[in-house]
Amino acid sequence: MTKPRDFQGEIVRRNLQRFREEAGMTQAQAAEFSGIAIDNLRRYESGRTAKVPGTVLAELGGIYGHSADDFSKENPPPSKPEERPIFMLRTRPGTEIDEKVYRELQAVIDKANRDVRTKKRSK
What's the rounded mean pLDDT across residues 6-28? Predict the structure, then answer.
């Protein structure tokens, strides 16, 4: 007996790879910027993992310029490069991080990204 095809899962997998490539990122870069383990990203893109968590789609969507809902659309809208972050906070895996300092740094980075977007729109 053959297993029924998961068309929705195929759409998500296809868009995972498509959006990453449109953003000009390698799997390693996407994993690093999103905080998702590269092995997990590879499994999601290859279909070895049946379901991709919504939190992962939201995280990747943020760096690709798409909404989390766009991943499940057969004909997704174009990406919004202006919504991709310019600046990102990266940390080494396994590094102990002071959560308060991390949140403060992330707030500064978020503000810088908003400021850059505002300047681009006003030109």
Answer: 90
The model's pTM is 0.70
* Nearest Cα residue to 113 out of 91, 84, 78: 84
CB environment 80-91: b (16+ within 10 A), e (fewer): eeeebbeeeeee
Phi then psi for 7, rounded to 5 degrees?
-65, -40
Q: Which domains does the chain have, with CATH numbers?
A: 1-73 (1.10.260.40), 85-123 (no CATH)
Note the pLDDT tens digit of each residue in 60-88: 998 898 999 999 999 998 887 777 777 77
pLDDT tens per residue across span 34-59: 888 999 999 999 989 878 999 999 98
Contact 19, 64 (CB under 8 A): yes
Spatial separation of the C-alpha atoms in residues 85 and 87, rounded to whole Å: 6
Angle at 52 between CA 107 and CA 14, to 5 degrees: 105
